[in-house]
Amino acid sequence: MGVTTMLWWACGYSLCFSGGEGGIIGNLDMAFLQGVGPTTPFGDGHIPLFVFIAYQMMFAIITPALITGAFANRVRFGPYLLFLVAWLFLVYFPFVHMIWGGGLLAKWGVLDFAGGIAVHNIAGMAALASVLFVGRRRVTDSVPHSIPLVALGTGLLWFGWYGFNAGSQLRVDAVTGLAFLNTDIAASFAGPTWLLLAWIFERKPKFVGFLTGAVAGLATITPCAGYVTTTSAALIGVIAGVVCYIAVSLKNRLHWDDALDVWGVHGVGGALGIILLGFLGTTAVNSAGQNGLLHGNGSFLWKQFVAVVFSSIYAFGFTWVMLAVINRVTPVRTSEAEEKAGLDAALHGETAYQEAI
Fold first, then answer.
1. Domain boundaries in the chain?
2. Backbone angles phi and psi of 78, in degrees to 5
């Protein structure tokens, strides 16, 4: 939060949302938020520009944070900070500009209501590149650290996601309500779908599976939330539960050590949502959207598909190259001794819990 906020104030917002129409990145005309005051309006004046800047800063903070869950207990702190800064400049800022800042993908007609590409897909593909680059943990946790904390975290995410998706309309109107309801519907269908699959294939209706499925539904509905009907949101939730469950099962079978299933839930879910929007989008619920294939517009599905392929390759490739370059400057991977001691103690001289004497 600290590093990203400083960069966002200094130049991140400007690179995302100032100039550069039809391009890959913006300019520095609004660096250090110059020319922006408390009463400066955003767009048609419904909200102050400060509100939009702060709202978009939340997306900038959460997106690289998603990646860190994938490589738990394997990456040293200094290289991580270098990676965070480089990833924001080389991956996140360009994609926000291309999709939400009037850049290349926006001009082409790609839609992403609240971050299927700009948040979840690029973070998930970066997570996959990271875990493949650094390798598996030498000390593996066989069970979740705390299921009650997983439940608490999921509840906070689920609640916060209403602001994440519904807030992306940037005003309170019918589309805001639609996005809010679609968000809840998709998660509510995806969680039980995942639980049912676990019950069938793992012989147990697992609570963590329900929670993971709900997050998969939230990630998948994110790009669609304000562009599809509530019936489509229910279908998207079911599809998200099935496809993301298969993705995580594949990850486990291939022994990819993605500790929090960032690729299978966010990467696959975000990409899936972008493509499903190409099928299910309808201007009947939002005139600012596009009709998808099921409503007679196959070209929109093609654009969504190409955008996902482009973002996936870009995020994976740039992340791998960044880590390789950083690794030449300073080792990215922790030592076996550091992993066994735990990174809190080995790198920071702190521990979360005091052991009983």
1. 62-348
2. -60, -55
CATH number, span 62-348: 1.10.3430.10
| CA dihedral (118, 119, 121, 126) positive or negative | positive
pLDDT computed for residue 229 by the predictor: 97
With a CB cutoff of 8 Å and minimum separation 6, the contacts of 155 are none
For residue 146, the model assigns a pLDDT of 86
Q: How high is the pLDDT of residue 43?
A: 85
User: What's the rounded Cα separation, in Å, for the pair 341 and 323?
Assistant: 24
Say how far apart CA 304 and CA 275 lie, in whole Å: 6
The pLDDT tens digits of the residues spanning 208-264 come to: 999 999 999 999 999 999 999 999 999 999 999 999 999 999 999 999 999 889 999
Query: Strand pairing of 41-42 and 47-48?
Result: antiparallel
Task: Give the span between the Cα atoms of 127 and 262, in whole angstroms.
Answer: 6
Note the pTM of the prediction, 2 decimals. 0.94
Q: How far is CA 136 from CA 1, 151, 300, 339, 349, in A?
A: 27, 26, 39, 11, 24
Nearest to 138 by CA among 341, 340, 345: 340
Q: Which residues of the chain have pLDDT under 50?
A: 357
Phi/psi at 352 (5° precision): -75, -35
Give the CA count within 13 Å in the CB-facing half-sphere of 139.
13
Share of residues in the chain with pLDDT > 90 (%): 86
Characterize 1-16 residue by residue with b for buried, 16 or more Cβ atoms within 10 angstroms of its Cβ, and e for exposed: eeebeebbeebbbbbb
- What residue type is 345 in one-letter code? A
Dist CA 103 CA 120 (whole Å): 19
Helix axes 298-329, 93-100, angle to 10 degrees: 160
Strand positions, DSSP E, the chain = 41-42, 47-48
